[in-house]
């Protein structure tokens, strides 16, 4: 049998980030929380909580997702049989993985619309759209905005549309680094701006537009809004979503490296079938926001 008091303790620690806060949430002492986690880890022969930052290990994440799924089923049952009592785990928290540019342009209105009508809480993680599906496969999240069209096991897929990107830089940057025009050779010497090691948009655009096969120098900047600001300040060139740079392009504060040479990224919504049936309003909110914002 699963020790649900211990499983709830692990999930509460991950949710609150603290043994003390988890104890208050569950109405027990911190020592009781510690003992439950220790005994469960000894029983499983695996560490479930990283003690330094109070995050779940891979096995701990699987346990937390199970607790959340049980919580969904419990909430559903209590709506039909309220005499059974109150949910033990409190509000359900839905873990979602989203790419940074979606989060910075269109996803938050969807999240806000969902929370206005649902008691569920959201925990949003950020990763590249080519990698968010891995979070689903590992059981770390129950839904994701992803570039993957093929459904992950146990998930439903809905197309969202295309997020369009423009390769932009400041007029000063263009004048300094491309005095004779934007060519593959000039691009190999001009500093780009890259979100992180998973970000291949700049190289994809360079290959598609100019046939450039070798990446040039780059600044590393893991911030969607910072990307735009860095381009405005002349640090480098980079791919930015239309919504974030349309006004800057119209005013001339930013210019396209190659006018009209855009790059589209097709996105999909993948969600656990259990979550899809229990919280259909989440998918409705995401699809509605995507229809308004994406191509």
UniProtKB/TrEMBL annotation:
Domain of life according to the entry: Bacteria
PROSITE patterns assigned: HTH_LYSR
Keyword vocabulary terms for this entry: DNA-binding, Transcription, Transcription regulation
Membrane among keywords: no
Pfam family, one: HTH_1
Xref: InterPro entries: ArgP, LTTR, LysR_HTH_N, LysR_subst-bd, WH-like_DNA-bd_sf, WH_DNA-bd_sf
Record flagged with keyword Lipoprotein: no
GO molecular function: DNA binding; DNA-binding transcription factor activity
NCBIfam families named among the record's database cross-references: argP, PRK03635.1, PRK13348.1
Protein name: Chromosome initiation inhibitor
Lineage, top ranks: Bacteria, Pseudomonadati, Pseudomonadota, Alphaproteobacteria, Hyphomicrobiales
Gene from which this protein is expressed: iciA
